[in-house]
Amino acid sequence: MNMNEIVCPHCQKAFKVDESGYAEILKQVHDKDFEKQLAERISALKDINTIATELAVTNAKSALENERNLLQSELKSAQTAQELAVAKALTEATKEHDKIQTDLTTKLQLSEQTIEHLRDMKLRLSTKMLGETLEQHCETEFNRIRATAFPRAYFERDNDLTDGSKGDYIFKEKDETDTEIVSIMFEMKNENDDTDRKRKNEDFFKKLDKDRTDKGCEYAVLVSMLETDSELYNTGIVDVSYKYPRMYVVRPQFFIPIITLLRNAAMSSLQYKTELALVKSQQIDITNFETELDLFKTAFARNYDLASRHFQTAVEEIDKSILHLQKTKDALLTTSNNLRLANNKSQDVTVRRLTRDNPTMAAKFEALKDQNQLGSDQH
Fold first, then answer.
1. Start-to-end C-alpha separation, the chain
2. Could you tell me which residues come within 8 angstroms of residue 161 by beta carbon, excluding any fewer than 6 positions away?
3. Could you tell me the pTM of the whole model?
4. Rounded CA gap, 140 and 106, in Å?
5. Bridge partners of 172?
6. What tens digit of pLDDT does each residue of 195-240 get?
7. Which domains does the chain show, CATH number per domain?
8. Sheet of strand 219-224: strand arrangement
């Protein structure tokens, strides 16, 4: 029996045990060591897992914080850029608003000054004189820029009285090819504040339209100081095409601008007007051709009628001649037939027939016949 020696770890004394005892002791030692090691390993794994979890959480928190900081930075930059853009736009809008406000204020002051000036003039002058002064004002304003702005323009008083009516001024402009660009009939109207009956702009629309039509103008413009308290007409330029086509009412300070606007608008359609003028000229040529063709047709018809009548007369004369010749022919045929019959009868005439009832001639013919017979026999 084998014996195993074991040394006590405490007293260092050796003693011997058999195999079964040794195995039992070894098992107990191994079980305790294994459980201890297992417990230590489990504890160590728990510590590792705890550290790993804490590290992962820390890393995740750090990443989230970094991402949050980045987003906050980008958001702040975007907000800053937006605020800058809004501030810039607001600044530009403010500047534009101030500019427009300044322009409007200046124009309003000028308009008020012009209105006050004209009102002062109206208080001192009669209605007729006011009208003449307004006409003179418009003519002066136009002549002031005529050489530079409208070198090809025609702008004169309308002195042609048609059906007892005429306008005040006519404006026309043509291009280098003599094609009309635009034409405007102007009427200037004003009145004194002391006038009992306050006239309206609309009172002159019909006459202005008639004058425009009679003189062949495309547009009609009423330069008016009537209805000075009207918000509509005080805007400066009012389109009244709903009453009459291509008609406008303007205040005196908009006299030159309305000409410029209408002229510039017409310039854009100049090509169409040029083409229209070409078509019209072609139509005139066609009309002249048709007129000449009608004259030719008329002359030809007259000559044809004369020739036809002469031809008909000749045909009738020929028919008459044919009828006469036919009668002559019939007469000749009858004569020919009679001659034929006479010839036939003459062919039947013999000496024997002529002497048929004459005994003397019959005897002589018999004697002659006998002589002839005798001569034949001798031969």
1. 218
2. none
3. 0.42
4. 23
5. 154, 183
6. 556 789 999 999 999 999 999 999 999 999 898 888 899 888 999 9
7. 129-268 (3.40.1350), 349-378 (no CATH)
8. 153-157, 169-174, 180-189, 219-224, 247-250, 237-239
Distances (CA, A) of 44 to 31, 49, 203, 300: 19, 9, 111, 134
Rounded Cα–Cα distance for residues 252 and 267 (Å): 24
Three-state SS annotation for 148-179: HHCCCEEEEECCCCECCECCCEEEEEECCCCC
User: What pLDDT, on a 0 to 100 scale, did the predictor assign at position 256?
Assistant: 93
- Residues 277-332 have pLDDT tens digits of 676 666 655 566 667 767 776 776 777 677 767 767 776 777 777 777 777 777 77
Q: Rounded CA gap, 196 and 198, in Å?
A: 6
Closest CA to 219 of 173, 186, 268: 186
Task: Please report the DSSP string for 63-97 in residue order.
Answer: HHHHHHHHHHHHHHHHHHHHHHHHHHHHHHHHHHH
The SS3 assignment for 185 reads: strand
Chain position carrying tokens 């003028």: 277
Residues of the chain with pLDDT under 50: 1, 123-131, 193-194
pLDDT of residue 194: 46
Q: How far is residue 209's CA from residue 266's CA, in Å, rounded to a whole number?
A: 20
CA distance 198 to 227: 8
- Output the pLDDT for position 305: 72
